[in-house]
């Protein structure tokens, strides 16, 4: 354990091939963060080189995979001298009663010190989780630069879960079907942990991953009241409805869209097709997901083309000198709050650039309208300065 509360991660991988594996992953993730370790979930489809980067950058000490393993991940872990292990959910039926047992097994430790470290873990009942414990370690997408490691504490997770529960009024009567990967904050925080935190129900897709052909069957079977997805999945669901409509659809409280811009025309078609408000939101890994969202109808209007109002944190539009800008003026979207990471891991340069004037700088350009709704217009790295006039590259592409 390091002084800043960072515990060397347990890297968790699921292949998504077997129907039970998502449940394996959920149980394992909750177990890891309960024992004050750090979960660093990864995409099973990574190459060996990608696994090597992520395992090395996170300084993982243990790699857990399904029983069938993951050859590229295990090869990378072996090269880095990382302990290997496997996890599985065992299903048994006795006298018409189904029981589940969860099993974790470690490969033979390479040294006596490794064995001692495994055997020295206190019983769970004696462990007390601290708010500062780093529970989750993820990386930014790295679309414009090398991915940055983002440690998220137990307190970050709880803060974000409470924000999500609050804005969507989640409670024990709610149910959802997870359609997103659980190695990103969208599915993990907004879909899984927020539902569990509110006392609601979470169903994992019967196909083991999102499938348009089984999505509505799952939603009906588990009495779903809402779901969250990225625009690509919304489009697939909408196309399926237009080409092969279901005989009946569940009555949803709302549909949530996040992680990319949702075209207003698609938002309108979703609402018309499924009879529920579509609430667009704004999120990022460094904020433990949610930053702003359109409200439920009883709490205010939802605006197509806007990502709504700040939720549970301060948000401001700043100019380059750190001055807060007035409504309708473009500037950088900046946030601060209990859900925001304390900083990137081992990256002084990135932290210096991101944490300025007492705010975390998102790198996104946007403005607040007169009703306090946030509108995003581009990224700082997409700005083009020509003779003192600033253009946004995204707009130029759209116009052409």
TrEMBL record:
Keyword tags: Ligase
Keyword check for Acetylation, yes or no: no
* Short name of one Pfam family: AMP-binding
Q: Does the keyword Transport apply?
A: no
Q: Which GO terms describe its molecular function?
A: medium-chain fatty acid-CoA ligase activity
Q: Where is the AMP-dependent synthetase/ligase domain?
A: 24-344
Per the record, the similarity remark reads: Belongs to the ATP-dependent AMP-binding enzyme family.
Q: What GO terms in the biological process aspect are recorded for it?
A: fatty acid metabolic process
Q: What PANTHER family does the record point to?
A: ACYL-COA SYNTHETASE (PTHR43201), MEDIUM-CHAIN ACYL-COA LIGASE ACSF2, MITOCHONDRIAL (PTHR43201:SF5)
Q: What SUPFAM superfamilies does this protein's entry cite?
A: Acetyl-CoA synthetase-like
Return the protein name: 4-coumarate-CoA ligase 10-like protein
Superkingdom of this entry's organism?
A: Eukaryota
- Residues in the signal sequence: none
Q: What PROSITE patterns is this protein classified in?
A: AMP_BINDING (PS00455)
